[in-house]
Amino acid sequence: MKFDPGIGVIPVRQPLGFRYEAGVFGPDPERRSLDAIRRSLRDPDCSGPDPVYAIVMDVGRAEIRDQLNERMLLFGAVIYASGQLGKEPVRSQGHVHHVSSHSGWSPPEIYEIWEGSAYVYMQEFVADNPGRCYAILAKPGDKVVVPPAWAHAAISADASDFMALGALCDREYSFDYDAVRKRNGLAWYPIVTRDGKIEWVPNPRYEETALEVRTPREYRELGFVQQDSLYKQAARQLDRFAWVSKPVICEEAWKHFEP
Q1: How far is CA 159 from CA 165, 179, 199, 219, in A?
Q2: N or C: which end of the chain has fewer CB within 10 A?
Q3: Global pTM value
């Protein structure tokens, strides 16, 4: 069965982008070229699909647009091409969120997979020691929380298929790529094996540390559940997601958070 995120933002494979149902707002997609993301890849000189992905930020049904603006929140969506970037599956650039001027925090983010399957990879630090590293394997309807200040990327788990996801973000969501690019990517690279599976190899520009690979968990302590779409839960009670733009609300939870 296909997953319906309920937001009225429909992924389109050709050309890579989105269309909007009636009563849905959103911009034209921005398409990321292969050249734009090369410095985050294991092989910067690789070939692969171009554009690699298309992204739209600040999308949704008009019914909660004002509420989203008031709470400094927005929904975004990304669709990724099928194929490989050298030996890696199609993926986003690794990045950290800039500190938001209104909260003083590098904000968290919630991913929700819409089509295909994905690894949401994240690490605590972009430093010699990257700290804890996770690769969360998510399928349509699964949600994954990236905690404040962690570096992260979305990676297709099946290079033969397209992948699409939605995200709930702080309205000041801006991306910082510089630290990741200086190390040619994040601490672990996903590699497509001959049988189409993903294996992980360390980036030698970091101290090697353990990588935990697993499936998503419940996030009931953060006020939402896996069983209903992110947008539908937000439309019913948007305040349950206030911590996305005000991370201090969950300050204690972030100290020992496990994705």
Answers
A1: 15, 27, 13, 28
A2: N
A3: 0.97
